[in-house]
Amino acid sequence: MSIKSQLSALIALAKIDGDFAGEERDLIYMIGKANGITEKEIMELVDQPEPLPSLSTMTDDEKFEYLYNIVQLMKIDNQIYLSEIKFCEELATKLGYKKGVISALSAKVFSDPMITSDRDSLKRAVKKYQD
To answer: In this structure, how many other beta carbons lie within 10 angstroms of the beta carbon of residue 104?
Structure first.
């Protein structure tokens, strides 16, 4: 899966509350830069997002990373809107997970800030939500 399509989904989530700024914007730029995407390219994605790739070409690890990043973005500004939760649930469903994976993953990430470094534990936790 291309990092640009993943960033596009993150940008869509960040824009749900009508404001592409603050911690959400910073996290998107950080993820982009860490993956070799320039600020100019990210701004182009803000204006013209890429579509979600075909799920048949995504590995389980790619699906997990996608899911993990949207949950991280949702929680970064400490304000979670119902529209953000619904957006994340829809993406989770498209990725082949049950909607409940969002609340389960969010609870684990919120309750233990150190768990973000234990990806294997998080992967095991979300595995049971795959269709």
So the answer is: 17
